[in-house]
Every structure is written in structure tokens, then in C-alpha cells.
Amino acid sequence: MSAPSGLINETTKGVYVIAATPFADNGELDLESVDSLTDFYLEKGVTGLTILGMMGEAPKLSEAETTTVMQRVLKRVGGGVPVVVGVSDASDRNVERLSREAMSLGAAGVMVAPVPNLKTDDQVYAYYANVATQLGREIPICLQDFPQSTGVHTSVSVIHRLVDAFPQIVMLKHEDFPGMRKLSQVREQSAAAGRRRISILVGNGGLFLPQEMLRGADGAMTGFAYPEMLVQVCRLFHAGEPEQAEDLFNLYLPLLRHEFQYGIGLALRKETLRRRGAIRSAYVRRPGPVLDATDHAELGRLIGRLEAALG
Q1: Which residue of 154, 161, 225, 245 has the smallest Cβ count within 10 Å?
Q2: Helix, strand, or coil here: 3?
């Protein structure tokens, strides 16, 4: 695994868990649960945390709440592991402000997704080039490639152009879907051209983690409510034991797949974290999904089957 503290870089690997943002049942920030959730992630052995991402409901937070969450998590972590902060915003001024605030508080780098509706390769490149220029070389950047949410396709050629032009771009969060061939193309074309190799951490709930590791991913950046599985799977792959890693992964796959559902997945993930004692409430800020009685029973059954299989 990568170093326990410091900035993210091209060699970063392991599990950077995407942290949920806990709210009380009345919708207000639950800072005690921010602390307990941070402790939960650390106890499960994660390499680092990523906060204020899309799963962290960042667009639903006020400016003051965003600062509060950053301060609370970074203080709780205390430099024990690196923390990446999501800074995506429609305004490039806000991206810069959030990035500099995050780094001043002790962040290890920032994650940036493109603004929606960029249509061409040149538009995508120009967007990221502007952000990288504004932030400068001192702030490490993780590119978030998540077209299912942003509607923006970041091509392999654009990724290579950005890596060549901006040394501060050190990581790709790979979430294209389907995207495993894209991951292979980034790795193979980069090696063939003698290009700088960057870190690639994968998302999409970790649904394809074994295959992605075999194709050259360095780890995961996702928020599955059993992060210890992601940690163990990545460690086994890095130890040269891919079959054992995939056997372990397969035990969790039914629950992981269930939690991955678009629309309702965040509510399922938060409810699982609540049941595991990591947070006090599974509340998702409006607009957001709400589980019904059947959803709760279904989730409980899958958790029970997992616990039986592990036992």
C-alpha cells in the first residue's frame, strides 16, 4: 500500500474509500456520525479516504457545511491516512477556492469531474487544462471519469494529452461503464509510448474490481459498505494471489451488486452503514431515495446471507 500520509502521486494504490456524509433524521449534518464513520473506515484498514464526492452528497451541502465536513474529517484522521477532497463545481472559481481550502486543511489532493455537457475532446481537454493551470503544480489532481453522472465522455486520447501536459495530474478515477477495455487502452498505450504511468483507482461500487485489477488498476476508490473486503482483495492482488482475491470478492458480490443499483444505491449503502454501527441515521438529503419496508427486508436478507457465508 502507499505511504500512510502525504500527497497522492502516480504510485498511489490501495483503497481510498468514498465516504458518505452523515445526516441526522432532520436532515442536519451529524458531526458525531462524521467522527464515528471516519473511525469505522480507518478500523477497516483503508489506505485513504475520499470525501465530498458524488456519493458524499456534496452538491447538497452549503459552503459552510462543506468546510465543516473537511475540517472534521481531516482533524479526525490526523494525518494517519491521505484524504482526497472532491471539489467539482460548475464554477472554476469555486473549484480553485475549494481546492486551496482543502489543501490548507491537510488534504492529500483533489478530485475533479468535468462540468456537464462538454461534447468534444477539445472541450474536455480545455476544461481540465484550465483547472490544472489555475491550481498549479503544487496540488495533485485526480481526474474523475464518470460519464453516467456527468454525461461527459473523456476519451483515452484526452487522458493521455492531459497526463503529458500536466504533471500535477497523478490519478484517474475510472468509472466509465462499460469501461474495462478503456482501462486496458490507457495502460497499454501509455506503456507503448513510454508515457508517465499514473495511478488508476476504480469506482462503480467495486463491481468489477477483480477484472480491473488484472487489467492494471492500482486499487479502488468507491464506497461499498464493507470496505474491509475491498482492502483484503487489493492486498491479495498486490501479493500475487488473484484467485484467492476473487474467491473472497465473490462472497460479497450479491450484496455489492444489490447496493450498486442506480437511484436507490446510496440509501442502501447508508442503511448498511447504520446497521453496522458506523452512523446513527441513514437519512439521504432531499431529493434522494427512501427505502420502504420491502427494501429493508431485502437488504436484511442479503446481509444475513453474507454473514452466514463468512461464518
Answers
A1: 161
A2: coil
